Amino acid sequence: MRPQLARGQAAMHKTAPTHVIRRAFVASLLGAASALASAQTIELAGVKFEPQAQVAGQALVLNGAAIRYKAIFKVYAIGLYLPAKTASAKEITESNAPRRVHVVMLREVGGSELGRNFTEHFGDNVTPDEFRSCIPQVFRFGELFSGRKSMKAGDSFTLEWVPGKGTLIYINGVLQGEPYEGATFFSGMLKLWVGDKDSAGVRAALLGKK
Questions:
Q1: Other CB atoms closer than 10 Å to residue 15's CB: what's the count?
Q2: What is the CATH number of the domain that holds 80?
Q3: Per residue in 59-68, pLDDT tens?
């Protein structure tokens, strides 16, 4: 009986590694599936937001995407890119790391209306001191749009924060002049979408909570 017992124990030792390998294989598949799910393109109203982007040579990930409404009308789709995903608005607005906001229009909006809205809402989401320190940047940004007849459906604009340079702004992929100096300006722009006074739905979606 002892030889048989020994053979049984040997068989158990031989099969054990197979179970371990199988479990590890399944775990790796689950991990890969999870990573793939979190890195998929998000599509909103026909606008696709890629899972990754680059700013100043640093890879960023899509933190969240949302649609801005005015009453029942879809105005634009927006995506927020960060070095790593986070649900903290404070962390997003106070970071000095590269960040990116990409906006695609879903309907035509007059340039003057768009510029005025951004200027007014910027002041709603920052302190009076912060607003005063950003007056030149805020009005320069507003004039980018008020100087255009309109932004049509499909047009886009992008804001990128580049440490050591400032805020770069693109309209339809074309850089609009020199960088906007000051971290407060970019932080204030972010608060238009993730600040406490913004639409709860937009804020939650950009923070990855929806």
A1: 10
A2: 3.50.70.10
A3: 999 999 999 9
